[in-house]
Amino acid sequence: MSTAILTGPPVAGSPLEADLRTLGFDVRTANDAATAAELLAAVPAQERVAVVDPRFVGHLHALRLALTDPRFPAAAVPGALTAQPGARAALARAFGRIPVGAGTAHLTDVLTDTLTESLDREETPLHRVELGSLVATVALTPAQREDAREAVAAVDDEAVRLRTAVKSRDGFFTTYCISPYSRYLARWCARRGLTPNQVTTASLLTALIAAGCAATGTRGGFIAAGLLLLFSFVLDCTDGQLARYSLQYSTMGAWLDATFDRAKEYAYYAGLALGAARGGDDVWALALGAMVLQTCRHVVDFSFNEANHDASANTSPTAALSDKLDSVGWTVWVRRMIVLPIGERWAMIAVLTALTTPRIVFYALLIGCALAACYTTAGRVLRSLTRRARRTDRAARALADLADSGPLAELIAGRARGRGRTGSFLAPVMAFLSAAVLLVWVIFQDDPTSWLTVGVAVCSALLAGAAVARPLKGALDWLVPPFFRAGEYVTILVLAARADVPGALPAAYGLIAAVAYHHYDTVYRIRGGTGAPPRWLVRATGGHEGRILVIAVLAAALSPSGFTIALTALAVVLALLVLIESIRFWVSSQAPAVHDEGEPA
């Protein structure tokens, strides 16, 4: 239940009370500020409270945006403001600062404006809603009220609501092939009481069924898989549009939306590999390569954004050129398509699945993602080298968390601390060497499943520890986590492929999927402002260098079949460990509902 306090007698003929009740508010009336403060104190602490000027005139959706959005502790439009339980104390203090007595009537006549200005000075952030073409105003005279009502009638707020349900920045395929009708599906779901989480779950189930169809290895199964994958993507767009249409944002919804996208895509890769195997074609190495490449692309995105989103003096000629290109219509869409975002990528996978073979699907995916990775990474490197930005402690902490260093790297970093200069290129060079030394050895050595590989893994760990010995504030330090991810994932892939026994690559696929989930979970926690997973979890999983060392020892000590069993067991243990902790955290978390509103990956 939520309570709306009208700061004066209702205006005759006004639909305001009905609108507030439509939004789920219990409406109460206070004739002065003191009475309003008493009503506020009487509302249970766990409830949302709104303060509304009875002379308010505006669209219902303007009120909805101001009073019901769960993402903001406090929000306001002209004539109306709201405070969630976390901002109730700030609102009470704002009431307490309003003078009472003779000569203060002017303050209570504009009570909502006075409270809004007072909340602006509080530590609790106040969100001022961007109305666009929507109307929200306080009409002081009958003439103003008539003008405001005409302005309301001139704008269809349902059309605005549908339009703003779509992301402001999206890929070409999503914008022109999905969103024109998925927004109406979102409205249909809202009118039937469906929640975004239910639609997200339906999207996951549809993708899993698509993966099952692909696993049949038949042409009919491949056609059905392609169609179901496209429908899963329609539902994937619909859940976010439903959240924006009905303002049903939640922490759990943000987590499900983010993690299910990866689960759907990687489960589909596995389905394609199983289907190819039924036809006598082993493409597990290609499926694993596609997952590794896609995950490393995401790590590049996450690391770069975390390193630079709060940097000061954050300008560069490369960024200026990018902004200039974004001002020309056709270059915007070309650049968005080049990076092969999720809409274009899934459309390509679906069409190729239906018309060709899994091997061709993976070849196209690997080539497309590799070109996209080269394009985006090169642009970000140029931006980083040409900008003069000061990285913050928070950014350095986020990069250190994304590096996923375990006890061994921590020990080495502690011994190496103080050597080298913060802000130099030492960290990315050490991280690159850490990955390169290991990968060159396992790829080109005739027998990488030997004890010599364990020694190389120890050398790699030493370099990894040196890379994180200083705060990651250098221009290219955001490359450290991607180098570590590439080193770990590709090492597992190569060792499993060189084992050359049935089941080794599928076991490696499961292991990398479990580790990748842990890395994605770290990203989403940082984005939500709650910090990385607890250190005990990172230490229990070994960190990237610890896992590499364990896998190198297993490869050297066990037979190929024993190595396969060990990989499977390790995948199960890691999956259970990170999933249980992740689910526990997100179910009980008070993290803000951070939903992806930018360009999809």
What does this structure look like?
- With 601 residues, this protein is mainly α.
- It is 67% helix and 5% strand.
- Strands 2-1-3-6-5-7 form a 6-stranded mixed β-sheet, with helices on both faces.
- Helix 20 packs parallel to helix 22 and helix 22 packs parallel to helix 25 (543-557).
- The longest helix is centred in the middle third of the chain and has 29 residues, at 358-386.
- The protein is globular, with a radius of gyration of 28 Å.
- The two termini are 37 Å apart.
Main β-sheet: number of strands, strand sense, barrel status? 6 strands, mixed
- Give the N-terminus to C-terminus distance in angstroms: 37 Å
Radius of gyration: 28 Å
- Would you report the number of β strands? 8
* Number of helical elements: 26
List the helices and strands and how they pair.
Blueprint: E1 2-6, H1 16-22, E2 25-29, H2 33-42, E3 48-52, E4 56-58, H3 60-67, E5 74-77, E6 80-83, H4 88-96, H5 105-109, H6 111-120, E7 126-128, E8 136-138, H7 142-153, H8 157-164, H9 172-191, H10 196-215, H11 219-246, H12 251-278, H13 284-308, H14 317-325, H15 329-338, H16 342-355, H17 358-386, H18 393-403, H19 407-416, H20 426-444, H21 451-467, H22 480-499, H23 504-527, H24 535-540, H25 543-557, H26 560-588
